[in-house]
């Protein structure tokens, strides 16, 4: 029987508990006419997976495979033509269900159901095999290995909406864009998307090493956010002909609106996809007077996922891989991935290689 990775319940309060990783057996399932059986080759961690282990994520449950990012090969299909066309192809999975193409948010009255570890969706990518609807996959970019392909679905979708959808033409040729907290998967994908859109990208980080690595990916420069008055240092870096920011892509929250009022042009956009610094973010009158728009952004629609994957293919973009654990049964190395995330040591994605990059489709 196929194996999957999940968490085991132990006593403890949310935030103080740390659920151990365990294996579970999943019963083989024959795909319905419109479904596919995917043999997973790789799956990647996101911060939500760490929060699940700490019981800090909505709907945390047990007995559901972890992880929402994944790549695999279709080894069986249903009888419908829409499914049969995927036979033998290498695919990436849409990381969430219930959101087709609306700009405002999920159309499903039950909300958006992300894969991995919750009661809202029975599927997760940390498994040897899973059955999905054919409508929920895209062909994996040929230029990427399966480890790389597993690294970009969720972070890429989140970054795409925050950068390209929420900011529009403010992330375009010659515009100045700030991406905060470089190092995590979303921030790095946002950097790649903005740079490939022609924007001049600037970044903040807690370490000079991460700033230097971001420059190698296309950033023009960066500042260390731990230093007092970093916004003044950043202003000095901006080109003489455009001494302001057009947009900020932010995953930290905190005082970013206060900084934006000093850094941004009138009518700039602050696109916020996370608040790692604080769950509260004051909106100041100084930002109101500059007509600065603060927009919340979470994940994205099925249409946006398709658009994002097409852009990755068109521009031959490569997600950054921080570390790879070999094998779904290697709990020690997988736990080390979680420890890297907990300590903020990663630059890029943390990935589990489940099986080797080869096709084993049924003939």
Q: What does this entry look like structurally?
A:
With 363 residues, this protein is an alpha/beta fold. The chain folds into two domains: 3-155 and 300-353, Quinone Oxidoreductase, Chain A, domain 1, CATH 3.90.180; 167-296, Rossmann fold (3-Layer(aba) Sandwich). The chain has helices at 47-53, 81-84, 146-150, 153-165, 185-196, 208-216, 230-237, 256-263, 285-289, 302-315, 331-342; strands at 3-7, 21-25, 35-44, 69-77, 90-93, 96-97, 113-114, 129-133, 137-139, 176-179, 200-205, 221-224, 245-250, 264-272, 293-296, 321-326, 349-353. 47% of the residues are buried.
Range of strand content:
15-25%
CATH H-level superfamily of the largest domain: Medium-chain alcohol dehydrogenases, catalytic domain
CATH C-level name of the largest domain: Alpha Beta
Number of strands: 17
- CATH 2nd-level architecture of the largest domain: Alpha-Beta Complex
| Unreliable parts | 359-363
Give the total of domains.
2
Give the overall shape: globular
Q: Specify the biggest β-sheet.
A: 7 strands, mixed
Which radius of gyration do the C-alpha atoms yield?
Answer: 20 Å
Number of helices: 11
Helix content: 25-40%
Q: Mean pLDDT, as a whole number?
A: 94
Distance between the termini: 21 Å
* N to C succession of SSEs: EEEHEHEEEEEHHEHEHEHEHEHEHEHE
């Amino acid at each position: 029987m196929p194996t999957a990775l999940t968490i085991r319940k132990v006593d403890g309060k949310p935030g103080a508990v740390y659920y151990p990783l365990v294996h579970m057996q999943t019963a083989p399932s024959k795909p319905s006419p419109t479904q596919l059986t995917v043999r997973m080759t790789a799956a990647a961690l996101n911060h939500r997976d760490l929060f699940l282990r700490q019981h800090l994520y909505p709907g945390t449950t047990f007995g559901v495979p972890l992880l929402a990012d994944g790549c695999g090969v279709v080894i069986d299909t249903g009888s419908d033509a829409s499914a049969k066309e995927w036979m033998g192809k290498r695919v990436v999975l849409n990381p969430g269900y219930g959101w087709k193409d609306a700009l405002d948010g999920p159309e499903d009255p039950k909300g958006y159901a992300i894969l991995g570890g919750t009661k809202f969706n029975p599927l997760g990518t940390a498994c040897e095999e899973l059955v999905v609807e054919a409508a929920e996959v895209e062909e994996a970019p040929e230029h990427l290995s399966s480890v790389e392909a597993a690294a970009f679905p969720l972070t890429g979708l989140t970054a795409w909406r925050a950068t390209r959808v929420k900011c529009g033409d403010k992330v375009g040729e010659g515009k100045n864009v700030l991406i905060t907290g470089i190092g995590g998967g979303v921030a790095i994908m946002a950097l790649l998307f903005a740079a490939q859109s022609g924007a001049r990208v600037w970044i903040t980080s807690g370490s000079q090493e991460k700033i230097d690595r971001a420059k190698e990916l296309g950033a023009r420069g960066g500042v260390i956010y731990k230093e007092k008055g970093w916004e003044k240092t950043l202003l000095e870096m901006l080109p003489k002909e455009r001494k302001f920011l057009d947009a900020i892509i932010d995953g930290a929250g905190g005082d970013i609106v206060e900084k934006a009022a000093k850094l941004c042009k009138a009518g700039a956009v602050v696109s916020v996809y996370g608040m790692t610094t604080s769950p509260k973010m004051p909106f100041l009158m100084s930002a109101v007077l500059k007509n600065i728009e603060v927009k919340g952004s979470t994940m994205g629609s099925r249409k946006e996922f398709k658009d994002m994957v097409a852009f990755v293919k068109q521009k031959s973009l490569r997600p950054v891989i921080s570390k790879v654990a070999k094998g779904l049964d290697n709990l020690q190395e997988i736990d080390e991935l979680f420890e890297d995330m907990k300590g903020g040591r990663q630059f890029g994605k943390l990935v589990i290689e489940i099986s080797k990059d080869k096709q084993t489709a049924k003939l």
